[in-house]
Structure formats: structure tokens, C-alpha cells
Specification:
Elements (H helix, E strand, L loop, with lengths): L7 H13 L5 H19 L9 H13 L4 H20 L27 H9 L3 H13 L3 H5 L18 H19 L9 H11 L4 H8 L3 H15 L7 H21 L1
Helix pairs in contact: 2-4, 5-6, 5-8, 5-12, 6-9, 9-10, 9-11, 10-11
């Protein structure tokens, strides 16, 4: 076959993967396979290597970002594409590496949110008093901001301080430093803020298969902010089976119940 007419998909499968893939750790192989299948090959795979130009790559990157895929994932895919094309250049299949002429998408302005899964939330609740576990549930499973939780009244969910009065800001800060920190330690979480539990609520909704518009409304966001904040979370659930939040929480509680006898035997 004329090397100039080899497509990206053919080159990856017949040349790049056998030469480079076998030398990678299994975890890295799986990561690269996911990037190729999800981001690179659907659009660029059918193209001949010599037809992939800087403008082709720039348009591919812009299209992936416009489709709502997280910047971190696209940057990883870009790096992988660049290394594949560099190998093709060194092997004489193409005259230059077109990826070198394209500016990679900038990093997100802030670190990607990492929602705590239901099992971690349940471990936090197990390490807390009933009152503190209730507040953790409100933040993680109802998606309230801490400030919104502080404003709740008896007619809402009867969340109150130990003395029966409405929570003050100093009382909340004391709870955060002590009770919330104790729940994190009990769950083995190195660092998180009460506000971060709101991300867990969003994650549960995406796992249910809810749309960006729906999640945005539940969080009180506009859709653009929701997409920029949780695009990578949506990526992770794109090929996963849908699971309603009630079942996810029930499964986590069942898993925790199975953990506790094992811990007592240790």
C-alpha cells in the first residue's frame, strides 16, 4: 500500500500500536485506547495521514470542545495525536508533523471538580453524629450550597443547631473545622469543602442521564457554567449505564454495611 494513502486509523492499528502500544503500562494502554476511540479516530481515523493538516487538527479540537468535552480530556487526546503524527513523520509517512503548528487548548482556569462518590459520602455520614450526617446528606444529595442550608427553617427540613436555634455563620465555621473535618477523616478523604458535596449531587444527576439543562436548573446555574464545570464528569458517564440516584445511594449504603463487619474483624 502506498504509504501516502494510509489512513490515520490504518496507521494507528497496523504501525503505531504494535510498535509503541506494547511498551506501555496496561493502565496507559487503556487510557490511550479510550482517547483514540472516543476522541481521535471517529473524526480523524478515516482521513489519509497526508490529508491531516494544521487546520484539520485545529477544527477537530474546536469541534470536540464545542461538543462539550472537557478541556483536560481534549488536551490529552491532542498530546496523543501529536505523538502519533510525530512517529509517522519520523517513519517517513508524512513530511511534517501538523500538530506542531496548532496551539493546544488552554488548561481549565480552575482545577476540575472531582465529585465524591456515594460510598464516600456514606462513609462520611457513618463517621458523623445523626445531626451532622443529616447536613452532609442535604449538601450531597439535595445539592444545596452551604449558605442555602444555613438559611433552612423548621418548615423546610427542620435542620437546626444543637440548641435548636438557626445556625449562625460562626457556628457553621466551627462545624466545618471540627465536625466536617472529622467526617472527612473517617472516610479517608484528604481534602474537601462542604461546598464540594454539591458536585456529588450534580454527578448523581448526570449518572441518571439527565441533560445539562436539567442539571443547570437544579443547581441554579446557567447551562454554559454547568457545561464548563462538569463537562469532564459528563465524559466519564457518556458510555456508562444510567443509574438513578436512589439506587446509587442504596447501593453505597449496602456496600458500607458489608464493609463494617470486615473492619471490626481486623
Amino acid at each position: 500500500m502506498d504509504s501516502g494513502r494510509v489512513t490515520m486509523a490504518e496507521y494507528v492499528m497496523k504501525t503505531w500500536a504494535p510498535a509503541c502500544g506494547s511498551n506501555l503500562a496496561r493502565k496507559t494502554q487503556l487510557h490511550y485506547e479510550q482517547l483514540l476511540v472516543k476522541h481521535v479516530l471517529p473524526e480523524l481515523g478515516p482521513l489519509e495521514l497526508r490529508a491531516i493538516r494544521p487546520e484539520t487538527i485545529a477544527r477537530w479540537q474546536a469541534d470536540r470542545l464545542a461538543a462539550g468535552h472537557g478541556r483536560v480530556a481534549i488536551r490529552h487526546a491532542f498530546d496523543l495525536l501529536g505523538s502519533i503524527l510525530q512517529r509517522a513523520f519520523e517513519g517517513g509517512q508524512i513530511q511534517t508533523n501538523p500538530a506542531r503548528a496548532v496551539r493546544k487548548a488552554p488548561r481549565p482556569r480552575r482545577a476540575e471538580v472531582r465529585p465524591l462518590p456515594p460510598l464516600t459520602i456514606e462513609r462520611m455520614r457513618a463517621a458523623s453524629t445523626p445531626r451532622d450526617a443529616t447536613l452532609i446528606s442535604v449538601l450531597a444529595y439535595a445539592g444545596l450550597r452551604p449558605g442555602e442550608a444555613l438559611a433552612l427553617q423548621w418548615r423546610d427540613i427542620r435542620e437546626h443547631s444543637a440548641t435548636g436555634t438557626v445556625w449562625s455563620q460562626p457556628a457553621y465555621q466551627s462545624w466545618r473545622r471540627r465536625a466536617f473535618k472529622r467526617s472527612l477523616d473517617g472516610a479517608g478523604v484528604e481534602h474537601a469543602r462542604p461546598y464540594d458535596l454539591r458536585h456529588s449531587y450534580a454527578s448523581l444527576l448526570f449518572h441518571e442521564g439527565r441533560s445539562v439543562i436539567y442539571v443547570a436548573r437544579q443547581l441554579g446555574h446557567d447551562a454554559r457554567l454547568t457545561l464548563s464545570t462538569y463537562g469532564h464528569v459528563m465524559d466519564e458517564f457518556e458510555d456508562a449505564s444510567q443509574l438513578d440516584a436512589t439506587t446509587a445511594i442504596a447501593d453505597a449504603r449496602a456496600a458500607l454495611a458489608n464493609e463494617e463487619p470486615k473492619l471490626r474483624r481486623q
